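Feature request, filed as a ticket because there's no other form

It would be nice if the structure record came with a short human-readable summary line next to the tokens. Right now we just get the raw output. Example of a typical job, pasted below so the devs can see what we mean:
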Amino acid sequence: MRQLTGVDASFLSFETRTAVGHVTGVIVVDPSSSPAPWTFERLRAHLLSRIDRLEPFRQKLVEVPLGLDRPYWTRDPDFDIDAHLHHLAVPGDGSREAFADLVARTHERPLDRRRPLWECSLVEGLADGRMAVITKIHHAAIDGLSGQELLAALVDLDPGPVDIPEPEPEPEHEPEPTLSQEEMLSRAARSLVGSPSRMFKAGRTLAQAAPVIGIGFSRRSPVARGDESMMELVRRFGAAPRTPFNASIGPRRSWAYTTLDLDLIKAIKNEAGTTVNDVILAIVAGVLRQWLVDNDALPDRPLAAMIPLSVRGAESEHAIGNYISSTITTLATHIDDPAERLTAVKAGMDTAKADHDTLPADILTDLTQVAPPAVAALAARLVASTKLADRVTLPFNVVISNVPGPPIPLYLAGALITGHFPVSAIVDGVGLNVTVVSIDGGLHFGFVADRDLLPNLWEMADLLDAATQELATAVGLES
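Raw output as currently delivered:
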């Protein structure tokens, strides 16, 4: 049995009636490239043939009584792959809107904690004759990079054989040692005894972080200057400006997806002297600015984004679980010119990364080790039930993640992958998430939001191409 870290367990505690803690991936494939008919049975056989490489797929949670300590992972002795597989079809004409709605409804349903925390659905009926696989796995088990390692265990560099080989029979092995409820309670009691020292360490970490994240701003100003870093803005204002998607969320989701050419993004990066991530942030900033203008909701202060960062070292390179931190940066949405906005975004990210580098790599681990899961879960439920997010604004408006993937063609059970679109989690106060996965020369964007806050997310996603071309022109690229 392996105990979850504080960061891992926090994704369980965040789950409420309106928020889920899993992440979803949507893999679109071309079934005509498969050497054999691409069926539900073929996908099932493929998953079974790789199951020994997919450790989180066999692990289920063991909760500590009364939520007094973090749960444990243990191998499920009654693992049944058919309890995790589903066969779906896009209704109607299989349009992108109908497909996205199916994905959103699949994503918004919580996972069953009595089983290993994952699901996989094969989807037929896409309008262009393609098919899709929707995978759901709990964030408590993986972060972005470990998710990519799971993908690597599932895919191949060529279509492979016509027949998928049967998995080898599992060798006899000793049952995994388990802890009784009494032993878990005993460990929890020892953990609680040690909580004052953990609280002291967390307090010291928070004090160390305060000058960086801007806790305790001194004064407010109604208008942002163009030369301020995000941290200066946070210090002065204490919170990001409010937008239509910064409010309490409900249980329903909307999702939209699209793809950009990675070569164009790299060309913009080279012309402007920035990074690919800077360009992605600037493009999303352009999308958000235009959407807010169209909806008469553009604040006079710049929007801020929370950017997840990996803190994996050599010792955790291939470990399961979460090794993440985050930083906050400006999106410079108060700047009209796209090239100037990119310059401001780059400066903001450079400052944010420098600030982040001054903090301990395990800051999130320190801060999430303090409260027992029951307390953290109660806090999440209180925030949701009191709709605190409608009265208090966080220091950021949106979460934007960029997860690099393999730059080469990949095959799933023999079918060529033509798209890999993410569906991430949202929380109260931040009802919009934009996550990007790169694979085989494409940047695949997934926009996910609360359906009541942003019922037509296509209005936002469809601005992506125009924002990209506008930026390319602004930095001097010829069309």
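Something like this underneath would help us a lot:
The first helix runs from residue 6 to 13.
The two ends are 57 Å apart (CA to CA).
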